[in-house]
Design brief:
Layout (H helix, E strand, L loop, with lengths): L7 E6 L1 H18 L5 E7 L3 H10 L4 E8 L4 H6 L4 E3 L9 E9 L3 H11 L5 E9 L12 E5 L5 E2 L15 E4 L6
Parallel strand pairs: 2-3, 2-5, 5-6, 6-7
Antiparallel strand pairs: 1-9, 3-4, 8-9
The structure holds 1-O-pyrophosphono-5-O-phosphono-alpha-D-ribofuranose.
1-O-pyrophosphono-5-O-phosphono-alpha-D-ribofuranose binds next to strand 2, strand 5 and helix 4.
Amino acid sequence: MNFASDVIDKVLISEQDIQTRIRELGSQISHDYRMTGVHLVGVLKGSVPLVADLLRAIHVPVTVDFLAVSGYGPAERRRGSVRVIKDLDQNVAGRPVLVVEDVIDTGLTLSYILRILRARQPASLNVLAFLDRPGLRLVDLPIRYVGFPIPDDFLIGYGLDYQERYRNLPFIATLKPSLLD
Ligand code: PRP
């Protein structure tokens, strides 16, 4: 019995489909950045498995850094801002930056991240969102690479958590609705 079988409703995206899509995205990114290489900026913590897989699917020079921001809960929404809680280690000025997010919902987190990165004057600034919930979007954002559009259900696995657990599942699944009551 899987350690998560008591919380999984159904598998939405299988491990095989995830890995196939990662290879496709890696090929596309390798082609698009063939002249410059690419600097990945992963947004902690959900992007960790994605960044690890994507790095190995890219076949041009690649560097990586991570950023963490506070979650966009009701309190932050009232204040109108998200906070950086772990900044980048490296300067992005003049570099071809690709921000890597596990999921985009409202777009508010990403909109904040893009604003602070743009001010640091990278050579280029693009976004990869492995999962995209366009139904929840509040701000329109340019997303260059999307893995899968997804419905509004609560999902776990491949970086996505329920109470900080289940990020290690190699597939993406819906959570049992009874847990959200
Ligand atoms: C998730 C995700 C994005 C953000 C998207 O992070 O990784 O950063 O929410 O939401 P938005 O589009 O509505 O702003 P979360 O706060 O769950 O943190 P985690 O990655 O550490 O789980």
